[in-house]
């Protein structure tokens, strides 16, 4: 299948080791089998923790921030809630105006998705979202191209409902304000990329947005897997034992535009098992997580996915008369062979290492099958 990366039965496994001792080297680490040279390095950057700034009690509707588009719920949903007498409302957050417009016009559909992912850090009353109440901690690892927030619409004449709602929030009563991060993957040349991050408070009731801060993480590609799956990495500048890893699904997994659209939908959804046995997931094309290693202690994350392989000769179904591009793309996807694989990314260190060593292993994890 033109433009589709295929791996054969002979490629049962491959291992890559990226040594990150020399941080002064200018050339990015390149994909290779076996150990890279000691001069290879990854770019350094910093991923801010969950902010510990004092949360606002509310945000004026006129406050806006680029990259955060707040939208009301579709009219059908509003009417359904009214008829069921549920005293709640919903607000939706997107990274772009086009997504929000498609959502409104299609009554809840999302249409094309971008390389922007968003993470909900919780409302302003959540533990850890008050300045000085907790140590800085990592953001959640559930990424989505759209976030949904629920808020209370109970009338003032319903004190019992109000009291119940406030009791879930603690004394702050700031349940409408949510902490959100938006991450946008930006591809560059020569195996380089960057992750543009923006943290903000979003008021689900007023639709106001207040920026906390922006940052950029430089990345270097260290591996390319089945169907063009890319692995990028960077050294954490403020934690010498940490590596930031970004998995990125290809924007154009096939030269055939119709098939590429079908494949992209499949490949953008990823799920990774993290070192603490929790799960990280995404539906927006990239997934970031951190691995930390100290002398004698390492960490590993595992992606389980499916490789889409070209059909064998004679297996491709015959095109029908007046077939649309969408139908043809779907038919070609159905004809492709599929085989489960497992990709592991690990960070280890010894007492002689000046920094963590990153290793990548790829292997089949199931038998081949056909059809989606």
Task: Please describe what this structure looks like.
There is one protein chain. The protein folds into 2 domains: 1-41 and 225-372, no CATH class; 46-218, no CATH class. Helix content is 13%, strand content 38%. The protein contains 5 helices and 18 strands. The strands form 3 sheets. Strands 3, 6, 8, 9, 10, 11, 12 and 15 form an 8-stranded mixed beta sheet that branches. It has a 7-stranded mixed beta sheet with strand order 2-1-18-17-16-13-14. Strands 4-5-7 form a 3-stranded antiparallel beta sheet. A hairpin with a 4-residue loop joins strand 8 and strand 9. Helix 4 (257-267) crosses helix 5. The longest helix has 11 residues, at 257-267.
Annotation field: number of helices: 5
Compute the average pLDDT. 80
Shape: flat
Helix content: 10-25%
Short description:
13% of the residues lie in helices and 38% in strands. With 372 residues, it is mainly β.
Indicate the topology:
Blueprint: E1 13-19, E2 34-35, E3 44-45, E4 69-72, H1 75-83, E5 88-94, H2 97-105, E6 116-123, E7 147-152, H3 159-167, E8 177-187, E9 192-203, E10 209-224, E11 230-236, E12 242-248, H4 257-267, E13 270-273, E14 279-282, E15 286-292, E16 299-309, H5 325-335, E17 337-348, E18 357-370
Question: Which features characterize this protein?
Answer:
single chain, mainly beta, 2 domains, seven-stranded mixed sheet, 18 strands, disordered N terminus
């Amino acid at each position: 299948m033109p433009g589709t990366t295929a791996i054969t039965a002979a490629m049962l496994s491959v291992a890559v080791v990226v040594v990150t001792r020399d941080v002064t080297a200018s050339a990015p680490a390149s994909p290779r089998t076996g150990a890279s040279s000691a001069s290879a390095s990854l770019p350094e950057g910093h991923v801010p923790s969950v902010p510990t700034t004092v949360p606002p009690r509310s945000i004026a509707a006129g406050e806006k921030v680029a990259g955060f588009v707040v939208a009301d719920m579709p009219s059908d949903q509003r009417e359904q809630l009214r008829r069921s007498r549920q005293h709640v409302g919903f607000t939706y957050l997107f990274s772009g105006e086009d997504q929000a417009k498609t959502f409104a016009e299609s009554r809840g559909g999302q249409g094309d998705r971008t390389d922007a992912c968003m993470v909900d850090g919780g409302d302003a009353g959540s533990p850890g979202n008050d300045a000085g109440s907790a140590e800085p901690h990592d953001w959640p690892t559930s990424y989505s191209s759209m976030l949904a927030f629920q808020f209370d619409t109970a009338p003032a004449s319903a004190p019992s409902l109000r009291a119940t709602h406030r009791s879930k929030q603690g004394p702050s009563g700031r349940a409408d304000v949510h902490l959100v991060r938006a991450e946008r993957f930006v591809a560059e040349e020569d195996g380089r990329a960057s992750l543009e991050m923006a943290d903000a408070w979003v008021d689900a009731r007023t639709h106001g947005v207040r920026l906390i801060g922006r940052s950029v993480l430089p990345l270097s590609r260290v591996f390319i897997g089945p169907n063009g799956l890319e692995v990028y990495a960077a050294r954490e500048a403020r934690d010498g034992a940490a590596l930031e890893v970004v998995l990125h699904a290809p924007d154009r997994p096939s030269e055939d535009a119709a098939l590429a659209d079908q494949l992209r939908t499949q490949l953008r959804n990823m799920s990774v098992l993290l070192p603490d046995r929790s799960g990280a997931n995404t539906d927006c094309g990239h997934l970031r997580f951190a691995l930390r290693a100290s002398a004698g202690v390492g960490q590993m994350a595992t992606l389980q996915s499916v490789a889409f392989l070209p059909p064998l000769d004679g297996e491709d179904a015959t095109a029908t008369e007046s077939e649309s591009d969408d139908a043809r793309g779907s038919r070609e996807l159905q004809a492709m062979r599929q085989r489960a694989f497992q990709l592991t990314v690990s960070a280890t260190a010894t007492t002689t290492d000046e920094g963590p060593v990153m290793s990548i292993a790829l292997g089949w994890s199931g038998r081949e099958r056909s059809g989606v």
